[in-house]
Amino acid sequence: MKNVNLYSSFHLRKTKILLNKVSVSINFHIILLCLFSIFTGQSISANEERTVKSIVIREKDSFSAPDEMAINRLMLTRIGEMYDETLFEKDLATIVRYYKNKGFIYARIDNKEDTVKLVGNEIHIGIIIDKGIIGEITLEGNQKTNDKVILQELLFKTGSFYTKDDVKESERILHEKAYISAANIESQWIAEMEYVKIHVIVAEDWSITGAIDPALGSESSTFLLKIQETNLNGSGHGTQLRYERKSETGEQTRSFLKLRYQMPRLFKSYWNFDGEYIQKREGDSWIVQLERPQYSLKSRWSTKFSLLEGVDEVRWYDAGERTAIFHRNYQNSYGEIMRYFGERHQQVYSGIWIRSLFTRHETLEMSDNSRAMPLDRNIKRVGFTIGRKRVYHRQTRFLKEMGPTEYFNTGADYSASIGYASPWFGSERSESIGGISVRSGWTIGDRFLSETLIGISSIFTNQFERSILQAKSTLFFRDTFKSGDDIYTVAKGYRKNGLFEFHHTFVVQFKTEMQFGLSGESQVILGSYSGLRGYDYRQFSGEKMMLLRLESRTVFGGAISEKIDDAVAAIATFCAKPFVDNPIRLGLVLGTTVFADTGYIWNGQHTFDISEPKRSVGIELRGGFSRVSNTGIFRIELAFPLDPPYSPSIKPKFEYGFLRTF
Q1: The pTM is what?
Q2: What's the angle, vertex CA 109, arms to CA 105 and CA 115, rounded to 5?
Q3: Which of the four, 107, 266, 495, 595, has the lowest number of CB atoms within 10 Å?
Q4: Can you give the pLDDT at residue 662?
Q5: Interatomic CA distance for residues 206 and 429, integer angstroms
Q6: Residue 214: cis peptide before it, omega within 30 degrees of 0
Q7: CA–CA distance, 21 with 15 (Å, rounded to integer)
Q8: Taking 80 as the threshold, does the pLDDT of residue 217 lie above it?
Q9: Which residues of 436-473 are buried (b: 16+ CB within 10 A; e: fewer)?
């Protein structure tokens, strides 16, 4: 355990602050009654009726004024009325409850015995609310990560007030770091020192990962060399060096070298830097991004700037066969500034943005029957965005990942954006672009969770020219058999509950993409690339697609799973023994999935026909290392296509690699 900051002479500091604020914070009546009571020693008799002359309310160690109007509305004691000790005790309890409901769970009345003073025949009330100041923060579990890196991610510090929302959001921020797999923040009221003690417990991921030609995909890519560090020297910086040989079914193998450096909290600020350089056969590409995100829900603004330049190859497919290859040069720059209004969970936002997009295509290969006609663009747009969002999070596990705590957003985000391009600022033509996006999540009880994403964008001049609709909705029926989602946690490992147990989740997902007016410029793909398992990488192509996916997921726990994890940890510790002294826990979690997929794809020439589905069924073994940074979920899959464009109708397809996002 590390003691990061402890108040020295805490009471002396409080006395100085109190004396400095007397002239500003304390009502003149309170000064009089204090002096008068010192010299006269008058007290309040229970049998005497006295009139309440003044009520003064302030917050201890705070320059901000309390919401006296709201508090006075809650109080039964009124100025000009007779003082009643019983009612006043209820008022004090009501005030404390009011502050606790606002998240100040350690709120109390300071010097309660001195709140009521008698001056002559009048009652003067002075209420001082102690919201609970943080006097000490200790850390535990960060063996590699520097203390200051953990502390700068917290939304509080010594000397600030403790609030439940700040603690919960700080836990979520720590969880989102690639090098931290678990975070828990505990608090305790220290009566002797009259402050709150904070204890932050984290579990660190194994942050150095790599691969040497492990053939990580039967249809996708194969790594020759990859070295990645997500927590360089405990600083939270990320680096990556990767030489990748990329191969796809029916395509020529390509290789490239990739270098990346991520620097969060640039110069101890909230700015993040991300730079990437890629060397490919076609040419070099690079991207630089400087961003100040809405780091906390209390943040009032965010901004982002990015520059990108590169080259690549674009392939066009018809009926599963490649019919064209283009060499594409592209440049893209983007900047935005957003302003947020409202409170932590309910916000309205608006902002302005500017984008420059340049693309040029060179034909390398094209068959006679290809319909490909990629469009060269030189567009510069300015625009604005407005939106409204409601943000709430629920902690859960085993929804999309294998083991770590996940944060499911149960709120909603609605936004609309419109931009305009003109030759006045360098665009090749005048045009407008409009878009609407919707993101929402909801729950029913503890077991039903659902999220929906919808995006619509259109480019138009005097008429609508090109439009794209994308939508995805996912329903999770979690913990079907009520086994509990704590069969495994990163902090404690597997639960001691017998030889074997499991956690089951049923998942339904529907997604669609529809393009209008983009014939020849862009296409929609349906196959294993897009999530229709059992078919080739780009089996079907068109302009519009719908896909329904059903999954029955089972995650294994119990003593058997624990023994497997222990065995893997022993092997990893033995292999790393020359480099590290401590045992290595990888957190291996295994599971199986049974699935069924149904898809449709069509275009202007072949309209939608409900009697022509593309279906498949199969089974999949999944696993993940929950204590290793950015490993994803590996899978071994056996799928059976039920409607292939060839015979026999059922031919099993074996795939392996990393899991697609679902």
Answers
A1: 0.83
A2: 165
A3: 266
A4: 62
A5: 51
A6: no
A7: 10
A8: no
A9: ebebbbebeeeeebbbbbbbbebbeeeeeebbbebbbe
Contact 652, 640 (CB under 8 A): yes
Closest CA to 314 of 302, 328, 303: 328
- Provide the 8-state DSSP code for 141: S
Q: How far apart, in whole angstroms, are the C-alpha atoms of residue 282 and residue 327?
A: 8
Dist. CA 99–CA 97, nearest whole Å: 5
Nearest to 548 by CA among 381, 412, 662, 631: 662
Residues 467, 522 contacting (CB under 8 angstroms): no
> Of 482, 502, 621, which is closest to residue 558 (Cα–Cα)?
502
User: DSSP secondary-structure letter at 9?
Assistant: S
Pairwise CA distance, residues 24 & 591, whole Å: 63
Q: What's the rounded Cα separation, in Å, for the pair 404 and 395?
A: 10
- Token pair listed for 340: 């947020």
Query: pLDDT value at position 254?
Result: 67
The DSSP line for 29-52 is HHHHHHHHHHHH-----TT---EE
> Do the Cβ atoms of 491 and 184 come closer than 8 Å?
yes
Specify which residues 355 forms β-bridges with.
334, 381
Output the 3-class SS for 145-173: CCHHHHHCCCCCCCCCECCHHHHHHHHHH
Helix (H, G, I), strand (E, B) or coil at 94: helix
Q: Which two tokens stand for residue 260?
A: 């990346």
- Name the pLDDT band for 19 (thresholds 50, 70, 90): very low
Please give the residue that has the higher pLDDT: either 406 or 27: 406
Q: What is the pLDDT of residues 526-560, one digit of tens each?
A: 988 888 998 888 888 899 999 999 999 999 999 99
C-alpha span between 626 and 568 (Å, rounded): 13
* Local structure of residue 247 (DSSP, 8 states): -
Cα(419)–Cα(56) distance, rounded to whole angstroms? Answer: 53
Band the pLDDT of 224: cuts 50, 70, 90. low
> What is the secondary structure of 192-208 as a DSSP string?
TTTEEEEEEEEEE-B-E
Q: Which amino acid is at 371?
A: R
pLDDT, residue 405, reads: 87
Residue range 344-355, pLDDT digits in tens: 899 999 999 999
Task: Tell me the C-alpha distance between 55 and 485, whole Å.
Answer: 51
Cβ atoms of residues 456 and 467 within 8 Å: yes
Q: If you ran DSSP here, which 8-state letter would residue 112 be given?
A: G
Ranking 35-39, 265-269, 312-316, 623-627 by mean pLDDT, the lowest is: 35-39
Count the helix, strand and coil residues of the chain and give each as a percent rounded to the nearest 5.
15, 50, 35
Q: Give the residue-averaged pLDDT of 472-481.
A: 94
The answer to whether 432 and 459 are in contact (CB under 8 A) is: yes
11 has a pLDDT exceeding 50? no
Beta strands in 367-430 (DSSP E): 377-390, 393-396, 406-409, 412-421
- For residue range 182-207, what is the model confidence (pLDDT) as tens digits? 899 999 999 999 999 999 999 988 88
The verdict on whether omega for the bond into residue 648 sits within 30 degrees of 0, i.e. cis, is: yes
Give the separation between CA 579 and CA 8, rounded to whole angstroms: 41
Q: What are phi and psi of 169, to 5 degrees?
A: -70, -35
End-to-end CA distance of the chain: 38
- pLDDT tier, 253 (very low <50, low <70, confident <90, very high otherwise): low
